[in-house]
Each structure stands twice: as structure tokens, then as C-alpha cells.
Amino acid sequence: MGMFCYQCEQTAKGTGCTLKGVCGKEPEVAALLDLLVHVAEGVSRYAHCARGKGIVNREADVFVVEALFSTVTNVDFDPARLAELIRRGAKVRANMRGVCAETCRKAGREPQALPADAAIEPAADLLGLIRQGEGVAISKRLDKLGADVTGLQELITYGLKGMAAYADHARVLDKEDDGVYAFIHEAMDFLSGNPTDVGALTAMALKVGEVNLKVMELLDAANTGTYGHPEPTQARVTPIKGKCIVISGHDLKDLKMLLEQTEGKGINVYTHGEMLPCLAYPELKKHKHLVGNYGGAWQDQQKEFEAFPGAILMTTNCIQKPKESYKAQIFTTGLVAWPGVKHIEADASGKKDFSPVIKAALAAPGFAADAEAKTIPIGFARNTVMSVAGTVIDAVKGGAIKHFFLIGGCDGAKPGRNYYTDFAQAVPKDCVILTLACGKYRFNKLDFGDIGGIPRLLDCGQCNDAYSAIQIAVALAGAFGCGVNDLPLSLVLSWYEQKAVCILLTLLHLGIKNIRLGPTLPAFVTPAVLQVLVDKFAIKPTTTAAEDLKAILG
Ligand code: FSO
Ligand code: SF4
User: Fold this and answer.
1) Partner of 310 for a Cys bridge, out of 63, 244, 260, 474, CB 3.0 to 4.6 A?
2) Do 12-220 and 233-363 have matching folds?
3) CATH classification of 12-220 is 1.20.1250.20, yes or no?
4) Exposure of 316 by Cβ count < 10 A (0-12 exposed, 13-18 middle, 19+ buried)?
5) Is CATH 3.40.50.620 what the domain over 379-553 is classified as, yes or no?
6) Ligand 2, from 3, 18, 22: best to mutate by most atoms within 8 Å of Cβ?
7) Ligand 1 mean position to 507 CA, how many Å?
8) CA angle, 464 as apex, 385 and 537 as ends, to 5°?
9) For ligand 2, is residue 25 a contact (CB within 6 Å)?
10) Tens digit of pLDDT for each residue in 33-88?
11) Pocket-testing residue among 74, 304, 463, ligand 1, by greatest number of atoms within 8 A of Cβ
């Protein structure tokens, strides 16, 4: 059987994965993920209608967010868990249909049911589900609607997937906003009507960006409200002797629970990938056995996890196929899953029991000796940077800082991603680099020095901390009495998966122009759609570091 998926940057041949995902996704899993999106759309159609009548259904809100997050690249590869989610979604949909029908009856109207092709009832067995998923594959729409319209529809879907991931992280820390759920249902309802008007599709994509800003704000409030504002911290990046657990993904709450459960057990905890910024949060760093960061960005994990002498916990994307050599040592939790890998579930109150992870860590050899100490500076989120805003502004006014570059986004396996290392290294000494997300591993262990005490490399945090970077830019613009586009600031972004898509939509919604985007453009953005982005936002594909830098600095 075949498949079609073009939602991430590493898609095969830059056009689409058709035999198997470059990410490791089997065609069966691709079909189940497509069916899951279909079921979520059905839930949202009823939920959107019900909200119009003042009825809010929490089950529907949480299901759609979890379903969309599960379909993000490198999250859920497990057919059994996906089948369970699809069946749960069909039940939520049936319930919502009942709620809507009842409301209509009460209002003296004839209840409307979804047409059969918009409300597939899940087959009894896995093979049946896979066949149903193939029936709603993106390729069917590509054939019918063409690449421009399908690409725009998918741009919205991918933006919603990314937004759902951030909304879910905020939700587990009790930060929710009803308007966000209402919008997700509205947008999914819009998509389920198979819209073809390019203007309406573009407007909805920008609305995704607008609402995503709210979601990132919620997540920022959830993280800083629970764990304090990140503070400048020297994070150790080399191992120390002893038993160990490495935690990857993006979830701060999982780390906190793990730290509490490992307290006094003689286990050192290391962050990995996008968990690095956690080392700067006061309520996390206060745990002395959170000793540092291990390894780099997600795409190096097979090599790094194989060499890790302890247990591994994946809290979200980006998981890669675990090698046999560490399959017994790796655990998943939350929505991330891989078949055959032990999964830690939360109980009804959200608590998780990480004792299997702790047991595996204690049974493993641990690091035999301390490596040579090496640290890197982190913790330059909005609160820290704004607390020295006066110094920064003076340095700009006095000419000591000529330009700011935000070099941020995802990392990936393609060789073209050296662009970002080359770019950071070529940035002149009188310029400051802001960075965020996993792409920074391309250069965050290099020594950039400082300008009058202001570090030249300011690590704002995870991908969602794009919110912090936006706040910093807005504050600078306020201080200089100009717009963000008039600041001496250039955005050089790398994308990989759908969280980067929603962040890009947020930047476009804010009217930010001249963004340089690489290492390649999304396959779902057709030349016609790209032209719209170029005309409206002067978005530019990256070329070479030297050429782009020359063009920016003139
Ligand atoms: Fe990276 Fe993966 Fe954080 Fe993404 S670890 S690629 S944009 O999941 O979310 O930056
Ligand atoms: Fe291919 Fe990316 Fe889709 Fe995986 S998520 S199947 S790599 S396009």
C-alpha cells in the first residue's frame, strides 16, 4: 500500500512521502493519522454548532486538541493507540451529535446529521480502520482540488496541529482559554466544509496565527507561573559520574514530576533537545540532581541514546525509531508513542508514576566518571532580557550594537542546515543573536562573547518561547518608537514540523516582513501560494549565509 504525507520539512524528495515516511511513519500509521484528523473534524463540526447555541463540551475540546497533537510529526507511531483515539473520537462525536439533535428538537428544528462521508463510523478491526484512513487521504483531495487549494487547506490544518500541541502543554498546567477551543472547532468546521476560496483560506490561515499568539501567551503564563521566570544560567553540557535519566521532548510538568520522584534516589537527571531551557527555571533548577543537558537536537538521538548509560524518557516529539540497543531503556509518556516502547500513563488527576523509568536507571551502569566540565549560557527569555532593556537600548543608541538577528526554529537531518551554523558564525561582532528551539544546537556551544556585558548569543528557550522573542521585539520597537519591521532586527528561521508552521503564521499575522525561511520551503506551499506570501510579506527562501547576511546588512 502507499501513502501521502507532506506535512514536514524532511518529506521525501521535497514533494511528499509516498512509500514510507522519512520520519519512520509506516503507511498504516499515515492512514490512521488521516482518519484521526477526519474524526476530529466531525467532532468539531458538532462542537462548533453547539457552541453557537451556548453549549460547551469539555470532552470534545480536549479530544480535538489531543487528536491534532497526536498527528504532529514524530509524535504517535503506535497503531494500537491511534485506533483507540479514533474510537474515542467517534464516541465523542456521537455524543455531540446527540447534544446538537436535542438542542434542535427543543428549538423546534429538524436535527441535522453529518453526511455519511463526513462521519465515517470506525471499522471493527485495525485493517478496516486503515482502509478507511486511505479513503480520506490528502492525495484524494489533491486529485480533486489541485495543489494550491489542498496546500492552503493543509497549511491551516498544520497550523492547528502545532497550536494544539502548545494548547495541550498549557492545559496540563491548568491554563486554558475557551476562545482557543472555540476557534479550533471553528477552523476545523471550516475545513470540513472543503473550502476552496483562496482568499477565505488565506484569511483563516492568518487567523490561526492570531489565535496561536494567544496560545503561546497561555503557555508562557503556564510555564512561568508554575516554575518561575527563566533566569540566566550556566548549563552544564557534559556528564558527571553516576546513575542517570535523560528527559526529552517539551513537557515541563513531566520533568517536575520526574525530579520529585527521583529526589534522594542517587540518580542524576539530564535534559535533552528542547528540554535544555528547563535548566533555567527556578522551580526546576532548584533540584540539585537536575545536573545538566545531554546531547543535542532530536535528529541525533539514535546515536546519543545508544551511548547513554541510563534510562530515557520522551515526553513529546521528536521521537525517532528506537534502536534495539536502547529499546528496553526508553519510555514514552503523554501523546508520544512508539509500538513496543513502554508508555507511562497519567492517572485521572494527571499524576504519573515514573517508577519503571527509575528502576531502569538504577539497573543501568550510569556514567563511570565525570567528563571535563563545560557549560553554556541559557535563560534569556523575555523577563531577563527586558530587565536589562535599558542597557540594550543604550548599546544600540551608542552604536555598540548594530543589529539583532533571531536565528531560530527547528533542527533536522538535512546537510543544508549547516546554513544556520555558517550564518551565526558570520554575524559581525557588533551584532546580537537571539535564538530559540532545537535549531540552536547548530551553534549554541560556540563562544560568541559579549558586547559590554550583554552576551552576543541570547537563548530565549524552546520553540514556543517564540512568544518571548516576540515580546522582546515589541518592547524594543516601543522603546525606539517604531514598528517591529523598522527595528534593526532580522529573522532567519528554520522549520521542520507543524509547530514551526503555527509560529510562522503568528509572525505573518503580526505583519512581520522579510523573514528568511529555510532550509527548504514547505512542499504544501505551491508557487502560486508562495507568490502571495512574497507579495504580502516579502518572505524569502534562504540562499547562502554569506549572501543573505550581505543582503541584510547592505
Ligand atoms: Fe524541535 Fe521537534 Fe520544538 Fe519541533 S524537537 S522540531 S518545532 O518538535 O517543537 O523545536
Ligand atoms: Fe514524511 Fe514528514 Fe509526513 Fe513523516 S511527517 S511521513 S517525514 S512528510
Assistant:
1) 244
2) no
3) no
4) buried
5) no
6) 22
7) 17
8) 90
9) yes
10) 999 999 999 999 999 999 998 999 999 999 999 999 999 999 999 999 999 999 99
11) 463
Q: Kindly report the protein residue whose alpha carbon is nearest to atom 5 of ligand 1.
A: 318
> Which ligand has an atom closest to residue 71 CA?
2
Nearest ligand, CA of residue 417? 1
- Domain boundaries, given as residue ranges, for the chain: 12-220, 233-363, 379-553
Contacts of 218 (CB under 8 A, 6+ apart): 166, 167, 170, 175, 176, 177, 180
CA 404, CA 393: separation in Å to the nearest integer? 12
What is the pTM (predicted TM-score) of this model? 0.98
Q: How much distance in Å is there from the Cα of 448 to the middle of ligand 2?
A: 35
- The domain made up of 233-363 has a fold known as Rossmann fold (3.40.50)
Residue 303: what residue type? K
Peptide bond connecting 318 to the previous residue in cis, omega within 30 degrees of 0:
yes
- The residue ranges of DSSP E strands in 137-282, in sequence order, are 233-236, 243-248, 267-271
Mean pLDDT of 195-206: 97
Report whether residue 6 contacts ligand 2, using a CB cutoff of 6 Å: yes
Q: How confident is the model at residue 117 (pLDDT cuts 50, 70, 90)?
A: confident
pLDDT of residue 111 exceeding 70, the answer is: yes
Q: Please report the pLDDT score of residue 1 as a whole number.
A: 66
Taking residues 380-397, report their average pLDDT: 95
